[in-house]
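User: Can you predict the 3D structure of Omega-protein? Sequence below.
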Amino acid sequence: MADQIVITEKTSQAKDVRAAIGSRYGVVLPAEGHLFDLLEPQDVVPGWKRWTPILLRPQELYGTRPAKGGNKAAKLKAIREALRTAKRVWLATDCDREGQLIGQEILEHYKYRGEVMRVLFTAQDTQTIRQSFDRAKPNSDYARLYAAAVARRQADQIYNLSLTRTATVILGKGARGVIGVGRVKTPTLAIVCRRELEIRNFVPVTYFEVVATAMVEGGEFKMRYAPRERILKREIVESVVAAIRDFEGPLGVRVEGKRQGPPKPHDLPSLQKLCASRFGWAAAKTLEIAQELYDGQGKKIITYPRAEVRYLPETLIGDVPKIVAGLQAGRSFSTIPVPAVPVIRKGKSGSFYDKGLEGASHHAVIPNVNTIEKLRDVWPRLSSDEKKLFDVIAGHIWPPSCRISATARQPQRLIRADFRSRPQAANTLILDGVQHSRNGNPPMKKVTMRSCFLRCKTAKPRDCGTLPSKTRKPGHRRAIMKVL
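Assistant: Sure. Here are the predicted structure tokens for Omega-protein:
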């Protein structure tokens, strides 16, 4: 029997590891996710078999037992037999908290006392896997990660089962079935229910807005009166209209430069949120496609998708030129100019920030530097959804002239009407949804060169009228007094 073994998290992972290292580190044996389940409460304390509203917390931790289903029994047997003679174990499961638990719980259950090395890789191509084995560290370095995984699992067992039994016994009297309570499901349902109640209890209230159409030499544009609170009385809005009717005077125009840093690379939540809004994908679909790009046969073009943070380690700075060059070979990014030497942005506001990775198992998801040169060959094999997701991931490492490093400067434009000769008139206007104040420094967000004409000199309102009421946000209904 071999004196070394490698344990992976799943069969596809074992296949990639074998292709990368052969038998250099011993026989490669796959798990099948969690090979152990926690004991049930009645297995720990027989008196807990009867459901009562009590806290199901044993004196020690809940023990484990072999899981059932799939091919778990056969895979566990193969690993158990290999552990009897193995002097060293290489844990090559996923590089997150759950991956640490999946591998180490096997060793803890069988009380393995040999040497254990931890292999962490954020991509599953051959080169990355080989480098990860070369950089393997003692598994004891990840004791806190394993402890966190155990604590999460034990807490779920204790509180989920305790609250489920309590809710079923107390709230479900006379009803059939179990009232399930879970750490994720219950608060999610609470959010949905709360929003549903808000919709059911919605009572529309009419409010008024004033829109002025300013006539200038180059054409016309609209300005909206924006008081601090909504106007609910018609007489107030009519007084505003009367104050600005027939106004003719200069519009102040000021152009200011504004610096805007590039977006950070994605973590999994931000990636799922963007794909939901852009493509209408469920979170599970985004993760499924990302997983396929990560470990799919003949793909492996992104790093580990279950990213927890939106930062990259500073050790990856040297990979930037290669990633940029690889992306430029594709059609999507070939026409975007980049500087000869990218200016790397470090620190909290940048992309490379080692402190931002403290406590995280893996960095933001980015294109895989070790397979980027093969992207042109891989691209035709990708589905349309896979191409969309890769472009989203690559787009956040690609700046306007290198998004990973550049800071964009945008001209911001402010237009302001001077109503000082009419103290009762509006002192705040909104242009294209952006608020402008007569006094002080107005917010500049979303004000661009498209917001107004380049040469605005005078404006002359015409007449006024009333548009039909229109329901807007919950709690309000809008009626517009329009000044033309």
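The chain has 13 helices and 17 strands. The two ends are 89 Å apart (CA to CA).
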